[in-house]
Amino acid sequence: MFVPVTAIATFEGEPPVAFVGRESGNVTKYINAVDLDNSQPRAVGPTISLDGHTGAITGIVAVSADDVYSASTDGTVRQWNAATEVEGKRETRCLQFPGPVRSLAVAGEIVYAGGQDGVLYVASSSAEGPTIATWEGHRDAILSISQLEGIVCTASSDNQVRVWDATGRCQYLLVGHTNRVKFVQLLSATSVLTISSDETTRLWTIGEMVAAAEGGAAAGGAAAPDGGAEDPQAATASSAAVAEALEGGGAPYVPTVRPAAIVAFSEQIQTAVVAGSNTFLGLSNGGLCSINTRDFQRTLADFQARNRAVVSDEKKRVEKDRVERSNKLRLRQRKNVQNKKKELRKAERDEAAAVFAEKLRLFKEQQEENGEEEGNGEEPPQEEELPEDAPLTQEHEDALAAFTAEEERVTLEAIDKLKAAAAARIESVAPIAELVYTSPPESFFKLPFTRHYPSGVQEGVVALSVQGRSAYAGCGGAVRVLNVVPGVTAL
Fold first, then answer.
1. Residues 46-71: what's their mean pLDDT?
2. Is pLDDT at 462 greater than 70 in this prediction?
């Protein structure tokens, strides 16, 4: 009976080599990785047994074909010399930790060990000897570690992902998963991929975190209040917490980030591994699938660009409409003032005509009373024509000024209402630019960045490594070698 496989690592070569870790604590090096395939009867080539662990193997990192690290629930990380010509003791280094190690990453001389206790142990070598730093923050086991360009990400059973700088300060919490996070991958200095038992994979943008890290503005250590709450409000830290942190009180403030994309899958994912631009996923039904992270990021970028364009176009439309309506209000105001001025001028002419008519009437009455013949005596009054540009009387000037002021008040009030309506409309569409890309589980294998590889077995894939065209899938006590070239399902 085979002992269950718990970890696999491969290293490129002709042929590629493979390291298989089992529940018993044994690590076996296969000189030819193809010999791992138990589905076909074949003669197995030479192997090298790396013995020393007393607990299940939880992670393997092959630095080269002969240099390999292994982590175990026995609380150790061991480095091995797996060269074929070596005789005797192969263990070259043993790091002891307080409890079981659940995940492992290696970057040069630095070893990252994720503890069952939620602590990230960082072991490095110096002139004084090996040192082990502890990065605390998670409240449950660290299940996955990813490191890139001085940034370290850890995924945990506490439903959170923490982003650390090279000094061990937690710069950001990635909050939103509702079950343990099994896998984390730094795609770049600004992009993170995560996979969780909540049956979603999520893409996160951490550009602001990098800026904060470079500026030294953030320090870490505090856990998010609600763990992996799905509530969008969990993505915004309270101003009180920020103020307290800035004043030096309470736990250090750690900003939280919400995902930019949430893709649900229809099968339970048990393990994952990175191979170039693809992340391969081992499924509970024995199959494999892959996510092309470049295409995933491109799909997200296109989605965000379209949404930003929608918001931008709507802003332009709203602003154009506001300006046009404001101009019409101003035009109406000018016309109203002009009409009022004409009205006042007409009133002055009417008043002058009435005065002249009264003078003429009185003149005629006087002539009739005096019995004078027409053409003799006093000349009749002459009507005076008011020029169009004649100044208004002070009374009418005051009336025009009051009317103009009232028109200005009414117009400004209407323009302010237009501005408020435009601002409200722009505010209402602004969230479109921040929409999260989402996809339901039934669409997972129809997405442009996913691919499915059936394995032909029913037992779940619990360990996985990909080298070139081949995927090495640990299913129970056996290993299947699958061809991951599109259109081919097995060797």
1. 95
2. yes
260 domain-assigned: yes
pLDDT tens, position by position, 396-447: 899 999 999 999 999 999 999 999 999 999 999 999 999 999 999 999 999 9
Computed over every residue of the chain, the mean pLDDT equals 85
Is the separation of the CB atoms in 280 and 254 below 8 Å? no
Neighbours of 431 (CB within 10 A): 10
Beta strands, E only, 76-230: 76-81, 91-96, 101-107, 110-115, 120-126, 129-135, 142-148, 151-156, 161-164, 170-174, 181-188, 191-196, 200-205
DSSP 25: S
415, part of any domain: yes
Name the residue among 143, 21, 281 with its Cα closest to residue 30.
21
Tell me the one-letter amino acid at 323.
V
pLDDT of 126 over the 70 cut? no
- 95 & 227 share domain: no
Residue 86 to residue 239: CA distance in whole angstroms: 61
Other Cβ atoms less than 10 A from the Cβ of 70: the count is 28
pLDDT in tens, 282-316: 999 888 999 999 999 999 999 999 999 999 999 99
Structure tokens at 286: 């024995």
For residue 175, the enclosing domain spans 144-264
- Supply the angle between the helices 394-429 and 293-370 in degrees, to the nearest 10: 160
Count of Cβ atoms closer than 10 Å to residue 224 Cβ: 20
Whether residues 159 and 102 share a domain: the answer is no
> Do the beta carbons of residue 57 and residue 463 sit within 8 Å?
no
Sign of the four-CA dihedral 167, 173, 174, 177: positive
CA distance to 282, 462, 463, 473, per residue, from 270 (Å): 6, 6, 8, 11
Assign residue 218 the CATH number of its domain: 2.40.10.480
Longest dimension (CA), the chain: 156
- Do 241 and 304 fall within a single domain? no
> What total number of domains does the chain contain?
3
pLDDT in tens, 98-121: 999 999 999 998 999 999 999 999
Strand 437-439 to 261-264 pairing: parallel
Q: Check residue 127 and give its pLDDT.
A: 54
Kindly state whether residue 330 falls inside one of the protein's structural domains: yes
